[in-house]
Structure formats: C-alpha cells, structure tokens
Amino acid sequence: MITNKNFSNLKELLEERDVDFENIADKYKSYKYYEPDRAFFLEHYEKSFKDLHLKMTLESFKENLNIENIYPNNKNYNFHLDNIGRLFVYKSNFSGKSKKKKNTLSNYDKLISVNNFPGVIEFSLSRFPKKLDILKSKDFGYMVLTPESNFQSSSSPKFLKDGGLIAKFNLSKQEFSEKLKYSLHKNNLKFLEEIYST
Questions:
Q1: Quick count: other Cβ atoms within 10 Å of Cβ 149?
Q2: Which residues, including other chains, have CB under 8 Å from residue 6's CB and lie 6 or more apart?
Q3: pTM higher than 0.90 for the full model?
C-alpha cells in the first residue's frame, strides 16, 4: 500500500465530519426504488446510511480535493459500480444483469482518486474489514474508517505497517444505531427490529 499528503488530508477531513442523519434520510427517500410503505430490518438502514454518509461526505470534498470515482481494469474480474458508489467484484466468466450475492468475490465501499492518487476506502462500524486483494493494493492507498473500538483488531498492526491509514469514525456502533433509530422514526421510515452484526 502507498499513501501521500492528499490521501492523509482526506483522512483528517473524514474524522472531522459528523453524520447528518436528516440529509441522509432525505437522500435515501429520493431514490427511485424507495417504497414508503415497505419496512426493512435495521441492518439494511445501517448499511445504507453509513454508505450514504461516506458518499455524501466525499462529494462535499470533491472540488477541493479533486475526488473522482475510478474503475479498475483487470481482465480476470468483472466490476459493477452501484448507485451509492460501492464497487462489486465478480468472476470474469460471470455475466448478466442479475448479480447474485453468492457470485460476489469482494466489494469495496469506495475506489477513488484524490488529485490523481488512487485509493480504497472501507467503512465498517463493528469490525476491522478483511478484503480479497483483487486490486493489488500495493498500487493504491488504503484507508479504513471505523470507530476507535476497532483499532485494536489483530489485523490493524500489519495494516498500518504496510502503509494503510485508519480514520476514526466519531460514533460507536451503538451510538450510530441509536441516532439512526431516532432518524427513522422522525422521517417515517419503517423498520423491523432484529439482532445482527455487520
């Protein structure tokens, strides 16, 4: 893994940004597939809201840091960029519009360039992420955005030694879930309770 000043500056900016649950809820409800009468488990909203937080935060820095989504070129894999900007990786012999979960080799929350410097960003609330290294990360910057409670993961020392960056997300998983529930109630987003871990 590699890094530079621009990518390190982005880490500091991500650490300073609070989650705007109200704006995220508005964005969520603006998607064309939004169904106001449909209820989802909290896990769905947690993933959607955290991913939208990252997407909207990066968009707010886009002009100052020249941030762009990038698309890898690797003949051994197929790639799909969804409407939130997450990159899904499939086997090269997999085709078709329906991309079933079982065919997904890996996914990355964000693959971007920051002033032409390529970098991966992973955002995890409950654990330090482990990814299949399809992108050959020695050629990329790699940043994990996660609560401080995950800093002591068994994977984090090697990750830092190899040149990765860890950005502190300013809410714990529990705090995020509590604020999320409040926002869902306030914005009439129907949800179902369940026990889960993401």
A1: 14
A2: 65, 114, 115, 117
A3: no
Compute the residue count for the chain. 198
Considering the segment(s) 5-189 as one domain, its CATH architecture is 3-Layer(aba) Sandwich (3.40)
Q: Rounded distance, CA 85 to CA 91, Å?
A: 20
Domain ranges of the chain: 5-189
- Residue 174's contacts (CB-CB under 8 Å, 6 or more residues apart) are none
Long-range (24+ apart) CB contacts under 8 A made by 67-75 are 67/10, 67/112, 67/113, 67/114, 68/112, 68/113, 69/110, 69/111, 69/112, 70/111, 70/112, 70/113, 70/118, 71/111, 72/111, 72/134, 72/135, 74/134, 74/135
In whole angstroms, give the CA distance from residue 39 to residue 191: 5
Strands 40-41 and 67-69: unpaired
User: CA–CA distance from 80 to each of 114, 163, 178 (Å)?
Assistant: 21, 27, 32
pLDDT tens over the chain, length 198 residues: 778 899 999 999 999 999 999 999 999 999 888 888 899 999 999 999 999 999 999 999 998 999 998 877 777 777 887 877 788 888 766 555 554 445 777 788 898 999 999 999 999 998 887 765 655 556 789 999 999 998 888 888 888 888 889 999 999 999 999 999 999 999 999 998 754 444
